[in-house]
Amino acid sequence: MAKSAVPTLADRLRAAQEARQAQLQRAKAAAASPEAAERREARRAIVAARNLRLAARKAEEEARKADEEALKERAAAELAAAEAEAAAARAAALQAEQETWAAEEAERARRKAAEQAEYEAILAARRLGRKAKKRRGR
After folding, report:
1. What are phi and psi of 50, to 5 degrees?
2. pLDDT value at position 1?
3. Distance of CA 83 to the CA centre of its chain
4. What pLDDT sits at residue 37?
5. Region 44-50 average pLDDT
6. What is the 3-state secondary structure (H, E, C) of the chain?
7. What is the pTM of this model?
8. How far apart are CA 45 and CA 56, in angstroms?
9. For 130, what's the count of Cα atoms within 13 Å in the CB-facing half-sphere?
């Protein structure tokens, strides 16, 4: 009798094992080849260049942020200085206005006192005139 054409389980397992071994041998051979080493080196160089570009971009971004922050701080300082100057100017204007008001008030008081004194003098003169008239008329 002839051998059966259907492989047994053992035959199939052996064939699978031999295929795995062959695939492993091909992978080892491909990894050991100089072309594969060159490709790995090329990939490493590409990765290193990419990392360098990323680092440069990150440094530029940090420098730009630092410049923006410095600009914001400078603007804030200028604004604070302008506000302080404006407040000082307002305070000086208020002080001048208060001094002017006080001087005007003092002038009004002086005028009122002078008017009052003049009025008192007129009243005193009238009284004296009436007294003199009484004395004459007696």
Report:
1. -60, -45
2. 45
3. 18
4. 85
5. 97
6. CCCCCCCCHHHHHHHHHHHHHHHHHHHHHHHHCHHHHHHHHHHHHHHHHHHHHHHHHHHHHHHHHHHHHHHHHHHHHHHHHHHHHHHHHHHHHHHHHHHHHHHHHHHHHHHHHHHHHHHHHHHHHHHHHHHHHHHHHC
7. 0.45
8. 16
9. 6
Arithmetic mean of pLDDT, 7-20? 94
Q: Which two tokens stand for residue 4?
A: 């059966």
Calpha distance 125→119 (Å, rounded): 10
Angle (CA) 61-63-64 rounded to 5° is: 65
Residue 3 has pLDDT above 90, yes or no: no
Q: At 7, phi and psi to the nearest 5?
A: -70, 150
